[in-house]
Amino acid sequence: MKEDQVLCACSAYERKYFFNPRFHSLPEQVQEELQILAVTMTEDVGGVFTMEFDEDGSLYMSTAAKENDFAFDEIGSHLKIKQYQNRYAELMEDLEEYYRMFFLRDGGKYVTGD
After folding, report:
1. At what angle do helices 74-87 and 89-103 cross, to 10 degrees?
2. In this predicted model, what pLDDT tens digit does every residue of 1-51 receive, in sequence order?
3. Rounded to the nearest 5°, which phi and psi values hold at 112?
4. Is a pLDDT exceeding 90 seen at residue 63?
5. Contacts 24+ apart (CB under 8 A), 99-107
6. CA-to-CA distance for 90 and 87, rounded, in angstroms?
7. What pTM did the predictor assign?
8. pLDDT tens-place string over residues 72-112
9. Concatenated DSSP letters for 17-67?
């Protein structure tokens, strides 16, 4: 079983955004939208925000925080993720389709897509 594939991540601690170069074929506009989404999340709730594809190609969002980060808004992060799931449902579905088409084939085996 392969591990999940990170699409992008953002850290409030390091004030950095990461976009996985494996997905460089996504349109620039989509890449920019993902960056705005991730940076906004960490500015609003803190911690580390990630968007990942699971082994079936489903896209999910998660947040994490350092153990003693009392500024991290855990409840707010869950609410914000729900808000993103609703507001960006079409984008999320398109990203899942893209991932399945270019990275998952042959009964769910990972392929490079390059």
Report:
1. 80
2. 467 899 999 999 999 999 999 999 999 999 999 999 999 999 999 999 999
3. -75, -35
4. yes
5. 99/5, 99/53, 99/57, 99/59, 100/57, 102/25, 103/5, 103/53, 103/57, 104/56, 104/57
6. 8
7. 0.86
8. 999 999 999 999 999 999 999 999 999 999 998 754 455 55
9. EEE-GGGTTS-HHHHHHHHHHHHHHHHHH-SEEEEEE-TTS-EEEEEE--T
Contact 17, 8 (CB under 8 A): yes
- Bridge partners (DSSP) listed for residue 50: 9, 62
Query: CA 54 to CA 60: how far, in whole Å?
Result: 8
Instruction: Determine how β-strand 109-110 pairs with β-strand 104-105.
Output: antiparallel
Q: Which two tokens stand for residue 68?
A: 């003693």
